[in-house]
Amino acid sequence: MALIDRLEPLCDLLLGAAYADDDFKDREQEEVRGLLEDLVGGELPAQLEIRINTFDAKGFELAATAHHFLGDTVDDRKRVLTLCAAINDADEEVDFAEDAYLRALATALELPAAALAGLTIDVEVDELKETFEKVRKGPPPPPKRATPPKA
Question: pLDDT at residue 87 above 50?
Answer without folding.
Answer: yes
